[in-house]
Amino acid sequence: FFVRTNSSCWHTDPFSSSELQDACGCRKCPNGTPGAPYLKNSLGHTLLNLSAFSVEEYLLVASEKPRLGGWSFGVRISDQVEDANSNISKPKTLAKVWYNQGFHSLPSYLNHLNNLILWRHLPPSADWRQYGITLYSHPYGGALLNEDKILESIRQCGVALCIVLGFSILTASIGSSVVKDRVTGAKRLQHISGLGYRMYWFTNFLYDMLFYLVSVCLCVAIIFAFQLSAFTFRENLAATALLLALFGYATLPWMYLLSRIFSSSDVAFISYISLNFICGLCTMLITIMPRLLAIISKAQNLQNIYDVLKWVFTLFPQFCLGQGLIELCYNQIKYDLTHNFSVDSYVSPFEMNFLGWIFMELAFQGTVLLLLRLLLHWDLLQQWRGHSALRDTVKTSKDIDVEKEQMRVFEGRTSGDILVLHNLSKSYQSFFKKTTAVQDISLGIPRGECFGLLGVNGAGKSTTFKMLNGDIAPTSGRAVIRTPMGDEVALSSAGVAGVLIGYCPQQDALDDLLTGWEHLHYYCSLRGIPKQHIPEVAEDLVRRLHLEAHVNQPVRTYSGGTKRKLSTALALVGKPDILLLDEPSSGMDPCSKQYLWEAIMKDVREGCAAVLTSHSMEECEALCTRLAIMVNGSFKCLGSPQHIKNRFGDGYTVKVWLCKRGHQHHTISDCLKLHFPGIQFKGQRLNLLEYHLPKRWGCLADLFKVLEKNKTFLNIKHYSINQTTLEQVFINFATEQQQTPQATLEPSTDSYHPQHLPI
């Protein structure tokens, strides 16, 4: 066909012409490069304008670019031939078929040559027009070079990158679940209840792999449904499924090993995704660049760099996945380019020199990392640290009761104690300073005692509690338990020694999808309670904590107080020897608190030792036989609640109710100050007046005498006198830790100022 276009659109390359005859007049092949006008379309095809050229000479002339020639039909015959054959009609048209691709030119030339040989050997009487060889070139290989095939190959490489991205996010979401178990305390609670570390990690791995394989099956099904040839041709589908499965097998243990360093599951999820991108996509790009440059430039040093990087990056499962999928795409492209020429260049992906080494690498990594996760755990690392930091020295304390307890512990008079703390300390080292959270705590707790641990936020009680439940290791000192045989063993070995520990964490370590019954059955099984007795034990705990109305419902429907009751019930499963209760009654109504306290006291009376942290002074007075108040990481007082109030209570609280609401307090205040100069007016609310009388300014009998004598004169309806409460003592110690420069601006105790009573 011919294209008519403007002559200004044609492009011309420079042409260095030369003589076509030598000195003797013989024709020779021109050595210049013809500059035929040409056009290029959007597909990159070139159209040459040979109107001003002799096609035969053009094809014979030397050229830097390969040309493949063609046919001419209707060529004008020379003058000698015209004279001899005057009867032959002269053609008026010229038709040319010129091939710019080699898929048809070579067969056409050979076939025409065969036809000439055939016609030459025909008998003279035969009509040569009746004979000929017809050639069919099929399949047409030229289709391999069109843009559709190229885009198809690029698209499947893009699909490979999308698969890497998707499975990186999938494994990150699965791996972050164990971080959530640790942060919420579910992992620690299960371990204290009897679940071993190896069983925990192995069952987690089995469940996570099962969930992961479901996603792999869905992905493989989608690939098969869309018939992506790079991943479905011959053995490629099986190789793709195996590659995805082994990626999860190698990646999940790797994430388990890193789970300890994250403080929340959200941070772990983002970090895992980032690490997957860096170890996957970035390493793939780093290796692709030298590989492409090596293919283009044929440079051996670039190929060597690619080989080294490829083997180094196989340490990352993410790179192995991406590299394997890209290699499958390369294998398919190579096959598509050669199979039409009856060349089968397909390589089985299971061969060791292809993807076999990636399969082996992923399987080896997964096995090694899983064994490391099963064999290494936090308690084992704590045991390796040993007890070399233990200091058996009595630290001088400001409080005589604290010092007496230290002496009792270090002199070994703890034969009746089930839990003993020896100079327990915890420090945190930063780049610039060392922070001491707990400092030299020594304590012995016998059976049948409920010990209260009080302190404001930052006092160290939460850190002490974490050391008791094994969540963190002490910097120095140790916590031991006494077995029924009288031996002292580390707290982490309590289960092996036959000592049961019940643990109620501060945050409810419950599964929102399980019911209360399912929680109780599961933890009863962990405790080793025989299966036939589990319903009886669970029903007893439900009855004692009044959970009947909620026990059959999922935990996600529970209120905060109901969750705390269920967490306490789980701690009481199996009648433990030691109870660790971290604010068990927070969020409960008064009635539920009473049920909770009764359940705890029942176990304590039966010989259980309990350690309680709480912000409720009422709870401590109701449950604790002894308690300690912590300030700046150390005990400031130790003893029974009444003993502490007697020692540290600062006098009495006097409340006076007047007959009339609007009555001024000045008359009563002046009267009381006349007899007790140190009395302080604390405030007024309606007809209620409140005063504080320090011990040194009077005795209880004199105070009653003055109030009774002046009751009618001062219009007093009734009054009450109370000893300083435990809460007031706690507040006094709390202000010691929370001293600020503004404290110097407080009014002196000698003067009084009216204040509003706290509501």
From TrEMBL:
Q: Which UniProt keywords apply?
A: ATP-binding, Membrane, Nucleotide-binding, Transmembrane, Transmembrane helix
The UniProt entry's GO CC annotations, sorted and at most eight, read: membrane
Alphabetical list of SUPFAM superfamilies matching this protein: P-loop containing nucleoside triphosphate hydrolases
Give the record's membrane topology.
Multi-pass membrane protein
- Where is the ABC transporter domain positioned along the sequence? 419-657
Q: Which residues cross the membrane?
A: 159-179, 199-225, 237-257, 269-296, 354-376
> InterPro entries in the record, alphabetically?
AAA+_ATPase (IPR003593), ABC2_TM (IPR013525), ABC_transporter-like_ATP-bd (IPR003439), ABCA (IPR026082), P-loop_NTPase (IPR027417), R2_ABCA1-4-like (IPR056264)
Keyword Nucleotide-binding carried by entry: yes
Q: Which Gene3D superfamilies match?
A: P-loop containing nucleotide triphosphate hydrolases (3.40.50.300)
Q: Which GO terms describe its molecular function?
A: ABC-type transporter activity; ATP binding; ATP hydrolysis activity; lipid transporter activity
Q: Which SMART domains match?
A: AAA
Which compartment or compartments is the protein found in?
Membrane
Q: Is Lipid biosynthesis included in the keywords of this UniProt record?
A: no
Q: Name the Pfam families for this protein.
A: ABC2_membrane_3, ABC_tran, R1_ABCA1
The UniProt entry, under PANTHER family, shows: ATP-BINDING CASSETTE SUB-FAMILY A MEMBER 13, ATP-BINDING CASSETTE TRANSPORTER SUBFAMILY A ABCA
Identification of the protein by name = ABC transporter domain-containing protein
